[in-house]
Amino acid sequence: MADHFGERLVEKIRKTKSFLCLGIDPHLDLIPEIFNENGKHNNITIVETFCFSLLEAVVGKIPAIKPQIAMFEQLGPEGMILLSSLCKYAHSKGFLVIMDAKRGDIGSTSKAYANAYLGKNAPFPSDALTINPWLGLDSLEPFFNKAQVTGSGLFILVHTSNKGSQDIQDVLINQDLKCYEHLANILKPIIEKNNGQSGLSSIGIVSGATYKEQAVSLRKILPSAPFLIPGFGAQGASASEACAPLITDHSYSGLKNFGLINASRSLLFPKNSYSVNSIKKWQDVILTELEKTNDVLLNTQI
């Protein structure tokens, strides 16, 4: 089922022997000076060169990228044109594109959001989209429908990596059930309905690596959901914490799948990337850091 997101995710993970998702977060104040050539370039040119040079350096090394849409929105219309071009380029190089937009609304608004991001013919063509469920299940229906028609995936925010997530997501609804667990329980039949031939669903969740206990609890509730796991690296979670909710695929040399561990700042802006004097040398630094991270994750026991 090549048109099923879960199947494509398994295929990419196996092909690249990696479950690392590279977050594309082009922070303007962190991009090295080599992309500015002594102040000659504007922000659009800087971000464009940075992003395309980044992808060029890591082709075939990871299954997926995750552009953070806010970093492109802040650049105005030209930034969104750049995002569209980046998505198309990433697909041409074999990456899955997970659009980190965290969209969520009701009715026709959700439908419009889904149309903007899901499917190869969308303006910002993505293989999967992060969505916010906190308006209720009816706000998710248009996304489910579009994902099914286009063979796309979704990652639903269930337990996020930020400290403030505890304010709502960890609140007890009754003596035995927390809010995030209640959300997982009502998503469970929808996720399982969308399982592919491998057993992996096209509907996944976001579960932060900074909350290992909650992530493990969620895996028990949702055994077929692909997990998108932020919080590893710059946010402080260790490799073992990030890998905790992954499932080992014993049929493929022990390679773990059923999830993507996201890393952004730790891979985009390593300290030694600021001392090089050419984009080619910068690409070498990025590739070395990425391969080192891949090795750490693959060798982490869960």
Short descriptors:
single chain, 302 residues, alpha/beta, TIM Barrel, 8-stranded parallel β-barrel, two-stranded antiparallel sheet, 10 strands, globular
Describe, in short, the structure shown:
The chain is α/β, with parallel strands linked by helices. Helix content is 41%, strand content 15%.
Overall morphology: globular
Largest sheet: 8 strands, parallel, barrel
Per CATH, the class reads Alpha Beta
**Tally of DSSP helical segments:** 11
Our Rg estimate from Cα atoms comes to 19 Å
Kindly state the mean pLDDT as a whole number?
90
SS-based structural class? Answer: alpha/beta
Q: Could you give the count of β-strands?
A: 10
Describe this structure in words.
The protein has 302 residues and is α/β, with parallel strands linked by helices. It has a single domain, classed as Alpha-Beta Barrel (TIM Barrel). Helices cover 41% and strands 15% of the residues. It has an eight-stranded parallel β-barrel, surrounded by seven helices. Helix 2 packs across helix 11 and helix 5 packs parallel to helix 6. The radius of gyration is 19 Å and the shape is globular. The two termini are 29 Å apart. About 3% of the residues have low confidence.
Secondary structure blueprint with pairings:
Elements: H1 5-16, E1 20-24, H2 43-57, E2 64-67, H3 69-73, H4 77-92, E3 96-103, H5 107-117, E4 128-131, H6 141-150, E5 153-159, H7 179-193, E6 203-207, H8 212-221, E7 227-229, H9 239-243, E8 247-248, E9 256-257, E10 259-263, H10 265-268, H11 279-298
Parallel strand pairs: 1-2, 1-10, 2-3, 3-4, 4-5, 5-6, 6-7, 7-10
Antiparallel strand pairs: 8-9
